[in-house]
């Protein structure tokens, strides 16, 4: 349902992980892997994070609130 680390993005929790990730992904031999993760992240965003989806989510929340008040 949401972003998957390593598939849609590369995360880190500490500064050393950030540096290691940058070192890995900026090496020329890892260009394809970098492009793959970036492309998959972009595709996920374009499919799942649209205005239409946001409106659907908001309408569902409103509907659930109204049902609870009945």
Our measurement of the CA-to-CA distance between the termini, rounded to an integer number of angstroms, reads: 30 Å
The main β sheet shows up as: none
Mean model confidence by pLDDT: 95
What is the structural class?
A: mainly alpha
Describe the global form: elongated
Give the % helix. Answer: 55-70%
DSSP, total strands: 0
Order of helices and strands: HHH
| Low-confidence parts | none
What's the number of helices?
Answer: 3
Radius of gyration: 18 Å
Gist of the model:
With 70 residues, this protein is mainly α. 69% of the residues lie in helices and 0% in strands. The protein has helices at residues 15-25, 31-48, 51-69.
Explain the overall architecture:
By secondary structure, the chain is mostly helical. It contains three helices and no strands. The chain starts with 14 loop residues before the first helix and ends with a helix. 0% of the residues are buried. The mean pLDDT is 95.
List the helices and strands and how they pair.
Blueprint: H1 15-25, H2 31-48, H3 51-69
């Amino acid at each position: 349902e949401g972003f998957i680390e390593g598939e849609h993005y590369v995360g880190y929790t500490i500064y050393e992980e950030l540096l290691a990730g940058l070192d890995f992904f900026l090496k020329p031999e890892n260009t394809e892997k970098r492009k793959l993760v970036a492309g998959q992240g972009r595709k996920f965003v374009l499919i799942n994070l649209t205005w239409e989806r946001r409106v659907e989510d908001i309408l569902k929340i409103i509907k659930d609130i109204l049902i609870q008040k009945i």
